[in-house]
């Protein structure tokens, strides 16, 4: 981080600030042109109910040089995918409109370029509209956590995936084309069975990934890696309980083949918190089928080997809370599970809706809300010393 004129900027953002001063004022003036700022948003029917507050933020920004400068830097950074990430830049926060919307302004300005990029792919208009709507959904999620609508660094980083042509909203889910990042290897046989082997990961005696919440004791831990020879493959498999087994298993190459490794292309599945569609099996299956079709037709350079998902919703312990027939349990069963290194903090944001920046280490579990069955059951687990870890799963294509 580099401190300049009261701003705390990442190296790439500091370079923009020091080398492109003449462009900063030019970019800020673009935010003051209401028609141009909302051109694409109006075309797709976005931000209507937030427009007045956003314009209040624009009107107030000339009095907030720090916010105006950061908004202009972000706008310039969005011109180049290589520099658009904000890194360790510090973004001031506050409850007034200027603080809640200044990071949204560069996104609004660049929506026209994003729409053109997606149109150039030949994507259906509904996919483009639904994907751009993710910007507006971010304001609503911010409201759920903070009591007022807004946009901040977290949502700026998230929606930059759209600017980078790396996120599409298709049906119930957001799909992100990327490399498989987790240290697991998938084996498959002709019967359709799939087994995941831990490959290059330290394993706690519990079968969880070493370093996860409650799993930091190294005594008895071991390194799990896949080994193979001409006849077979052996390694430590992930059980149905989402834990890595402590005894190695052997798989003959005449019966099993490697179908997915770390680094292979996958479609990451992200589950929007705000959606008009239910998480039913039928809706999920339709979304997967449509995603395969859309990416095959409009992203021919990307050939995914699997869907992957990492979320608190992938934790198999939720089945004991919600039951086998719940939508979350059915959603999980479509994937072959695996553990991830997890701080077990996601539930506080997604289930209990703690505000951004909350100190997770200072949470009083006894004061957590019990107004739903899920919250009550999760609270019981936490009070008993347990955890709800984030977890993962893959579904071969």
How would you portray this structure in words?
This protein has 397 residues and is an alpha+beta fold. It has two domains: 164 residues, no CATH class; 231 residues, Aminopeptidase. It is 39% helix and 18% strand. Strand 13, helix 11 and strand 14 form a beta-alpha-beta unit. The longest helix is centred in the middle third of the chain and has 22 residues. The protein is globular, with a radius of gyration of 23 Å. The mean pLDDT is 94.
What labels describe this entry?
2 domains; 6-stranded mixed β-sheet; Aminopeptidase; 397 residues; alpha+beta; 16 strands; 6-stranded antiparallel β-sheet
In short:
With 397 residues, the chain is an alpha+beta fold.
């Amino acid at each position: 981080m580099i401190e300049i004129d009261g701003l705390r900027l990442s190296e790439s953002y500091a370079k923009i600030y020091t080398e492109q001063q003449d462009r900063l004022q030019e970019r800020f003036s673009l935010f003051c042109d209401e028609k141009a700022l909302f051109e694409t948003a109006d075309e797709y029917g976005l931000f209507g109910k937030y427009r007045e507050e956003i314009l209040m933020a624009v009107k107030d920004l000339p009095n907030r040089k720090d916010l105006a400068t950061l908004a202009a830097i972000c706008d310039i950074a969005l011109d180049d995918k290589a520099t658009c990430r904000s890194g360790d830049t510090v973004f001031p926060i506050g409850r007034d409109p200027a603080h809640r919307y200044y990071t949204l302004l560069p996104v609004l300005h660049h929506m026209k370029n994003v729409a053109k990029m997606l149109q150039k792919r030949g994507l259906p208009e509904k996919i483009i509209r639904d994907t751009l709507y993710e910007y507006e959904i971010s304001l609503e999620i911010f409201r759920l956590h903070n009591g007022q609508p807004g946009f901040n660094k977290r949502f700026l980083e998230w929606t930059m995936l759209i600017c980078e042509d790396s996120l599409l909203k298709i049906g119930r889910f957001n799909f992100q084309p990327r490399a498989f990042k987790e240290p697991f290897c998938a084996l498959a046989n002709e019967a359709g069975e799939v087994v995941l082997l831990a490959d290059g990961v330290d394993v706690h005696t519990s079968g969880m990934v070493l370093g996860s919440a409650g799993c930091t004791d190294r005594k008895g831990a071991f390194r799990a890696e896949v080994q193979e020879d001409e006849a077979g493959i052996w390694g430590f498999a992930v059980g149905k309980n989402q834990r890595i087994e402590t005894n190695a298993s052997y798989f003959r190459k005449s019966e099993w083949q490697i179908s997915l490794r770390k680094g292979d292309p996958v479609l990451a599945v992200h589950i929007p918190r705000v959606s008009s569609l239910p998480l039913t099996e039928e809706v999920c299956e339709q979304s997967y089928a449509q995603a395969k079709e859309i990416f095959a037709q409009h992203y021919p350079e990307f050939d995914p080997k699997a869907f992957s998902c990492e979320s608190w919703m992938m934790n198999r312990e939720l089945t004991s809370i919600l039951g086998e027939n719940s939508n979350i349990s059915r959603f999980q069963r479509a994937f072959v599970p695996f553990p991830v290194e997890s701080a077990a903090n996601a539930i506080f944001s997604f289930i209990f809706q703690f505000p951004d920046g909350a100190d997770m280490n200072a949470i009083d579990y006894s004061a957590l809300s019990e107004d739903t069955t899920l919250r009550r059951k999760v609270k019981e687990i936490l009070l008993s010393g347990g955890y709800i870890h984030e977890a993962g799963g893959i579904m071969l294509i």
